[in-house]
Known about the structure:
The structure is a single chain. The protein is elongated and about 105 Å long. The longest helix has 38 residues, at 4-41. The chain is α/β, with parallel strands linked by helices. The chain has four helices and seven strands; from the N terminus they run αββαββααβββ. It has a four-stranded mixed sheet. Helix content is 38%, strand content 24%. It has helices at 4-41, 80-95, 137-142, 147-164; strands at residues 52-61, 66-75, 111-119, 128-135, 168-175, 193-194, 205-206. Helix 2 (80-95) packs antiparallel against helix 4.
Amino acid sequence: MIPRYQKILFLLLLVASLAMGAELWHLRERAHQRLLAGENSAPTKAPVIAPAEQATLLVANDADGSLTPQARSLPLPSDPGARARAVLGQLLDLYAAPDAAHHLAGGASGLAQVFLLPIPADAHKAAGELAVVNLTSSFASTHPSGIETESLTILSICGTLRANLPEVTEVRFLIDGQPRATLAGHADLTRTYLTADAVPVAGTAHE
């Protein structure tokens, strides 16, 4: 038979446990309500939208092998690397259109990154910047094969960089962050391209 004092002690412990559980639940609810109130009262920052500026895209045409400047109003970030990515992304989006004169699949998603690195001056050349254009493997694998069409893509990218970032004098290409022999079997990706070699051969078209 359980002594009377042990029964009383057990009941007291049970009541204390229930009371502590209720208090913990109440504190948890209060903390949750504070969290919700903090989220609701926190100011929401509006996304930063870059101002629209005029950019120049050097657009390729497979029909006649030309590179034609096209002026477009685009939101361009002030950071040079982000600016380079923005103009090249717009160029690739242009090529993804069904009626593009130089059709390439994927659009801006084919561009992974653009890095700008300083080139120190020496006895043979002035200081400038090297743009490292990192394309995706899906862009390379779907790119039409042929020396002319591949060269037009490369020169179009180089010329667009030169038109919008004159300090970029050289360009190197990577595929998924790695060196690659060719773009789609022909155009050499192991060399450094000079942006000065991408010369437009037609008048400027505005849009």
